[in-house]
Amino acid sequence: MSEPDADPTERNRLDEEESPYLRQHADNPVNWQPWDQQALDAAAEREVPIFLSVGYSACHWCHVMEDESFEDEGIAEILNENFVPIKVDREERPDLDSIYQTIAQAVTGRGGWPLSVWLTPDGRPFYVGTYFPKEGKRGQPGFRNLLASIADSWADDEDRREMDRRADQWTDAIEGELESVPDPGEAPGEDILVSAADAAVRSADREHGGFGTGQKFPQAGRVHLLLRAAEGASDDETADEYREVAAEALSAMAEGGIFDHVGGGFHRYTVDREWVVPHFEKMLYDNAEIPRAMLAGYQVTGDDRYAEAARRTFEFVEREMTHSEGEGEAGRGGFYSTLDAQSEGQEGKFYVWTPDEIREAVSDDTAADLFCDRFGVTESGNFEGKTVLTINESIPDLADEYDVSEQEVEETVEDAREQVFEARAERVRPRRDEKVLAGWNGLMISALAEGALVLDDGERWADLAADALEFVRETLWDETEEKLSRRFKDGDVAIEGYLEDYAFLARGALNLYEVTGDPDHLGFALDLADAIQAEFWDADDGTIYFTPESGEELVARPQEPHDQSTPSSLGVAADTLLALSQFRTDDDFADVAERVLETRGQQIRSNPLQHASLALAADRYARGSLEVTVVADDLPDSWRDELAARYLPTRLLSRRPQTDDEVATWLDRLGLGEAPPIWAERDQRDDDPTVYVCRNFTCSPPNTDLAEALDWAEDGE
Fold first, then answer.
1. Residues 15, 151 within the same domain
2. Residue 627's closest CA among 571, 709, 530?
C-alpha cells in the first residue's frame, strides 16, 4: 500500500477514483481531491476553506462549468492556492448532497447541480450556489471574481469571524431541517389517499398532462396515489377524475419527447410544459419508476400504449444499461447508472432528426413520409433546427390520409423505426456511467418483477431481474457482516450503503420472490430488513435515518421523508417492512413502520404529495396488505393472467410449498423458527393449486379458483 501524500492537495487525485464523473475531471488543472480524510486533514493543516463541487456524469451544467472554469489555468491557480477543491459524485454520496442541497435551498431558494459550496475546514458551509458562469452576467457573480473575493475575505480576520458565525448558523439550520423529528402523533388513516389524490388533481395540468405548468417531471409517485385512490373512491365521478388525471400524465409521457420513440427508455424531464423537448440524460431510476407507473396504468385502463412503453423501456435497459460480466447463466450483471445527455459535445445530438436524415435511413420514401408524419419530423424542427420525436398523428388519421389500413400503417411505421434505429446505432453514443448502484438496481428489479407478472413476455424480465439481484448480492452484500456496499465499478466495491440501498433492494428482492417463488429472494429481503432495523432505525427518535449509525460522522445525519427524483427511502423502508412483517412471527418490522408513520403522520397529512411514498405506506398500514398465498409448485398460467389483469396495489403474493416437509426446509433456509401466519395451516385442497386471500386477519376460504378468491376479497371490502 502506498504511503499517503504529504500534501495530497498538490496534485489532482481523481485519476485514482472509479466514479466516471470524478474521472472526467482528472485532467483538469484544478487539484481536485475526492472526499476523504486526506483531503479534510489537508484543509485543516493548511487552514484554508474547502471548495466542494457536487455533480454527476450526465449533468449538462456540470459539463458547462467544467469547460468554462475548471479547465481554465487562471481559475485553477486561484482554487489550488487558496482552497482545497473537492469533487463529489452525488450518485455515490447522496448523504453529502442532501446535507449541502438543504442549505442551498434554504439560502438561495433553489438547488441543483453542479452544487458549489464553500466550507470551513471542518465541513461547515458559509457560501453556496449552483452553476456560476466564468464571468459575471445577469446579476450573477462570475466564478473567477467570486473565488478571489472569498479568498480575500478568508485572509481577513474580521471577515473570517463573520464567515465562522455564518457557518455556525447554517449548520444549525441544516441540523434543524435534516435531523429534527416531529413529535409522534397518529398514523394517517384510509382517508390519506383522498387527500393526496385531491392535491394531485389540483396540481394537474389538464391541458398537456402531468403536473405543474412549467418543466415537466415524471412524478410517478403521484400517478400511484391517483390510481390507488381511484380504486377505493366513494363515488364513480371522483374515481373517474383520479383515473383521468393519472392517464393524462401517463399518456403525455408515453407520447411525448421524454420517451425515446426510436430506442425505448425515458429521458430525465422535459424543459417545456408540452412534454416536447427533454433534458436528454437517461437515468436508471427513471427507467425503473416510470415503467412501474405505466404497468399500473395498463392494469387500470387496459391501454396498450402503457404496456408497450414499459416493455420497450425494459428492452432498452437490457440492451444498453446491463453489465455484461455477471455471474448468472446469461453472463449478465447489475444495471449501469446513467447515459449522458451529450454526444460530440452537443445536447441531444444522438436523438434528434431531420426529414433528410429519416429519408436516408428508411429505404422506402412512403414509409419515410409516414414515419415523419407519425413522429412530427419537419424541416423547421422543434429543437435547434432538428426534431425530437413525439407522437404527432394518430394511426387512424394516418390510415385515412394515406388511404391504407391501420394495420398497414402500424407495420410500415414499425419497419421504418427499426431502420432508423439501425442508422442511429452508427452515431457517436452518449457516454455511459457504468457504476452499479445497489439502490438504483433495487428500483429496476422491482419494475422488472412487476413486468414479469403483467407483460406477456414476463419470464424474460424475471430472468433479467434475477441476474441483477444475484450480481448485486454477490458483489455488494457482505453476508458475514450483514452490511451492504453502495457501488460496484470495474471490480471495485466502495462506499457504505445508505437507507435507499437497503430499502430499494429489499423491496426488489421481495417483489422478485412474489413472481418467482424463490425463497432465497425472500430471505435476502428479510436480511436487508434486519440490517435496516440494526443500522438505521433509532427507537428513541422514532425514525429511520438515511445514513447508518456506524457510518461517517458529518455535520448532520440526514433523513429522507420526501420523494424527489427517487422515492423517499423512508417511505419505501416503512412500506417494505410492513409487507415483510407478514413473514415474521414477531412484530418488530410492523412496530418500526408504525412508529415511523406516527412520527411523520402530521407531515404526511399536511403535504401528501411531497410525502408520496410515506402516504402509500400509510395506506398499506391502514388497510393492510392484500395477502394472496398460493400453495403450488408453480403459479398456473391462468392465475398469472388473472393477476396480470387486476390492479391490486397492496398485493403481497406469497408462494408456499405444497408439503409441510418442504415448508420446514424453507423455514430452515430463511432462519425462521416457525411458519409465519401467511403460510401456517395453508394446505392444498384435492392436490390442486390452492389460494388463500386475506386482508387484516380476514381470509377467504381455500379456493382452487383465483378469480373467485379475489372477487371474494373485493366484495368483502
1. yes
2. 709
Q: Which residues contact 540 (CB under 8 A, 6 or more apart)?
A: none
Q: What are phi and psi of 100, to 5 degrees?
A: -85, -20
Q: Output the CA angle 122-125-129, nearest 5 degrees.
A: 145
Cite the beta strand spans of 312-447 per DSSP E.
338-339, 342-343, 346-347, 432-433, 436-437
Beta strands in 81-182 (DSSP E): 84-89, 115-119, 125-129
In a domain, 603, yes or no: no
Count of H helices and E strands in the chain? 27, 21
Contacts of 569 (CB under 8 A, 6+ apart): 439, 498, 499, 500, 503, 504, 546, 560
Q: Cα(534)–Cα(577) distance, rounded to whole angstroms? A: 13
Whether 555 is covered by a domain: the verdict is: no
For cell 474521472, name the residue. Answer: 23
pLDDT in tens, 600-652: 999 999 999 999 999 999 999 999 999 999 999 889 999 999 999 999 999 99
Block means of pLDDT (10 residues each) for the chain, length 717 residues?
67 96 97 97 97 94 95 98 98 97 94 96 97 90 97 97 97 95 93 97 98 96 98 92 98 98 98 97 98 98 98 98 71 91 94 98 97 98 97 98 97 98 98 97 98 97 97 96 96 97 98 96 97 97 97 96 97 98 91 98 97 98 95 92 96 90 90 88 88 89 93 73
* pLDDT (tens digit per residue) in 504-529: 999 999 999 999 999 999 999 999 99
Residue-number span of the structural domain to which 233 is assigned: 199-320
Is the residue at 434 inside a domain? no
Residue 180 CB-half CA count within 13 A: 10
Instruction: Tell me the whole-structure pTM to 2 decimals.
Output: 0.96
The C-alpha atoms of residue 608 and residue 601 are separated, in whole angstroms, by 10
Reference 297, options 390, 196, 225; nearest CA is 225
Q: 327 and 474 in contact (C-beta within 8 Å)? A: yes
- What is the tens place of the pLDDT at every residue in 325-377? 755 555 688 999 999 999 999 999 999 999 999 999 999 999 999 999 999 99
Domain boundary among 178, 211, 232: 178
CA atoms within 13 A on the CB side of 359: 8
